[in-house]
Amino acid sequence: MLQLVDFVVRNRFFLVFVLLEVLSVWLIVRSNTYWGATYFNTSNYYVAKTLAFSNSAREYTKLDEINSDLANENARLHALVTALNQKKPVDAPAGYIPDSVFASRFTYTVAKVVDNETNKTNNVLTIDKGTAHGIKPGMGVISATGVVGKVRFCSENYSVITSILHSQFMVSSKLVRSKEIGYAKWQGKDPNLVDMIDVSKYTKIFKGDSAVTSDQNSVFPPGIMVGRVETVTVNPNQTFYNIVLRLATDFRNLSYVYVVQNQQLGEQENLKLRTVETR
User: Fold this and answer.
1) Which of 4, 17, 196, 273 has its CA 20 to 30 A from that of 34?
2) How far is residue 84's CA from residue 77's CA, in Å, rounded to a whole number?
3) Per CATH, which fold does 106-279 belong to?
4) pLDDT tens for residues 85-112?
5) Which three-class secondary structure state does DSSP give residue 75?
6) What is the per-residue pLDDT across 170-191, written as a single tens digit (0 to 9) for each?
7) Domains of the chain by residue range
8) Taking every annotated instance into account, which residue ranges of this chain make up the domain Rod shape-determining protein MreC beta-barrel core (predicted)?
9) What is the DSSP letter of 204?
């Protein structure tokens, strides 16, 4: 308190000057229409700027919550689109009516990426969902833009995903325009590019064509983007194209993913196992 009094005493002339200045400005604004209007407009401008900055700061602090809400909404939309596509496939013959349970067999769980690798030969990533959230090894993982990988290991609250940027990972893919089916496989070099193998050179391939997941896999829903055709070459001594795809998923900026559960996967795998045993 004594320090405050001492400060006022030492600066009394300056404080009186400031008070008189404020009083003078107030009197001018009150008695002069022009300066009153100018003051009103100026104060409104700065108040609006301050409020805008405050709102921006408040929105920035809520970005994680907003992103989480968007990811949940995307998961719901993914499930809806997949079910609609399966209920009425574009290339289905006349009279084909798929079972409703089959059409809605895929469900999605949103997860956040907590660790990610892109510069190794065999890359993996870690998500913040595990067995406590219904995640199991073998489930597919996608992003908002395309294929990511497959669940490899799970703990109660975390899962390790084998990325598509892994030398031992392949996903059955189909070229949209030519309808040709092959396998997308990473060669361990550029994290933006993968090869598409086993595509016959006797079919016309278009540069820029989309490669999506095919119907011939039980892990991913059909029609999920894998990438776009970057280059197409052919060796006269080979029967297959050398196709390079630019990945749809940007692994360096991956934040949220969707774990895909095929609720009929166990039934499909059991049938395959029985087929192998009876051969």
Assistant:
1) 17
2) 10
3) Thrombin, subunit H (2.40.10)
4) 655 555 555 555 555 555 567 888 889 9
5) helix
6) 999 999 998 899 999 998 889 9
7) 2-60, 106-279
8) 113-261
9) -
